[in-house]
Amino acid sequence: MNRYFILLIAMLSGKITQSYAQNNPVPFTDMISKEWKLEFYGENGKKQPPSPQQQKSRMIFSKDNKVLSIENGKKEQGSWQYDSSKKLLTINKQTGEQLLLQVIKLDQERFVAGYQDPAGVVLEIHMQSVRK
Questions:
Q1: Which of 27, 129, 120 is nearest to 82 (CA)?
Q2: Quick check: pTM over 0.85?
Q3: Domains of the chain (ranges, CATH numbers)
Q4: pLDDT at 3 over 50
Q5: Which of 50, 68, 78, 107 is surrounded by the fewest CB atoms within 10 Å?
Q6: What is the spatial distance between Cα 58 and Cα 38, in angstroms, rounded to a whole number?
């Protein structure tokens, strides 16, 4: 009988935790604020792995709305903003260039963003959290 009571309590606490998580989602700032590495690109349903040079590329977002991009050994700083109604992440680079990313998925491990390149091709950028 004791075993069933413990199981019932465990099941109920799981439901309460799940309900709390659904009603109190983690703020976007907390989810994005970490280091991300490129996992692969998606184009027309096809996966394209990163080139050897891209494997060391990183995007590092901080809670103070700053971002550091490391690509081909070159570091570039900027700032970021998020429009939750449009699910649009805007990155303003120090150079004045602006990058618009449609947030498709964001959780503790994965960040998937849609990007339209200058030629009009829409790419999905799949990034993975870097554990330190």
A1: 27
A2: no
A3: 27-129 (2.40.128.280)
A4: no
A5: 107
A6: 7
